[in-house]
Amino acid sequence: MLAHPQVMGILNVTPDSFSDGGQFLSLNTALQQAERLITAGANIIDIGGESTRPLAPPVSVTEELDRVIPVLEKIRQEWPVLISVDTNKAEVMREAIAAGADIINDVKALRNEGSLAAVSTSNKVRICLMHMQGEPRTMQQNPHYDNVVNDVKTFLLERVQTCLAAGISPNRLWLDPGFGFGKTVEHNLLLLKHLSTLTQLGYPVVVGVSRKSLLGHLLNKPVTERLYGSLALAVLAVSQGVQIIRTHDVAATVDALKVTHAVLQPIDKI
Q1: CATH of the domain at 157
Q2: What's the pLDDT tens digit per position in 44-63?
Q3: Distance CA 47, CA 86 (A)
Q4: 223 within a domain of the structure (yes/no)
Q5: Which residues carry out catalysis?
Q6: Looking at the whole model, is its pTM more than 0.90?
Q7: Which residues span the domain enclosing 32?
Q8: CA-to-CA distance for 104 and 146, rounded, in angstroms?
Q9: For the chain, how many structural domains are there in total?
């Protein structure tokens, strides 16, 4: 039987994220949004305390911890949901794991100093290794690949090997091709067309395309009007074996993936 795709609800506790910056900065508004995401069917809540949109200013460790840890602790107390923390700082990883995080979602794929050691403080926390060319502030300035599908695959496999060599078990690793992170529209479309290249590697694959600029380019619509395009890409991703969809719009995504999963199942399993 095919595993049912999981929905990761995005909870940005930042003032400047591209889609929902500033909406959930206070602890109360963040918890209210977490409850909405969980009620809508999110299996995972992904808390982010630093925007990684192009040109976003960096955030200090102290500020990121102040944004993330209180929200993480309260969600851990209130709801039996998987909690992911979206960070590339080793100090934040360490504190998040100590506070009960189940997943570390790292756009740098544990390349920053101390990150491997930080996730090694637990033998259970899962790690999402994402591909990104360049740095968040400059990643969209003329990104280039010889072959984007092969280059992303090679990078992710290299990061997997680094994790395995550090003693991290393979069942803790997830992969994310990093849509919109150092990639043109053409690069993103090629990766979407060939997602099976990654899903066939045997690790759960995470896809985050919700409301992204790719959809703005294809649809000529603002961030607030990209739901249907986001759903189309989520369905296409799951049809190629993707197991986790990261999204702002949980309820609609849950419905779309339930239908997709039913179609993909062997008919006697429905």
Answers
A1: 3.20.20.20
A2: 999 999 987 777 778 899 99
A3: 6
A4: yes
A5: 212, 246
A6: yes
A7: 6-269
A8: 30
A9: 1
Single out the residue of 49, 197, 168, 253 nearest to residue 244, CA to CA: 253
When mean pLDDT is compared across 45-54, 75-84, 165-174, the lowest value belongs to 45-54
Give one DSSP letter per residue of 139-171, joined into a string: TTSS---SSHHHHHHHHHHHHHHHHHHTT--GG
Which pLDDT tens digit goes with each residue over 122-151? 999 999 999 998 766 665 667 889 999 999
Q: How far apart are CA 182 and CA 188, in angstroms?
A: 10
In-domain check, residue 181: yes
130: in domain: yes
Dist. CA 118–CA 101, nearest whole Å: 13
Cα gap 16→23, rounded to integer Å: 9
Q: Which residue has the tokens 């102290």?
A: 62
- Is residue 1 domain-resident? no
Q: How many CB atoms lie within 10 A of CB 15?
A: 13
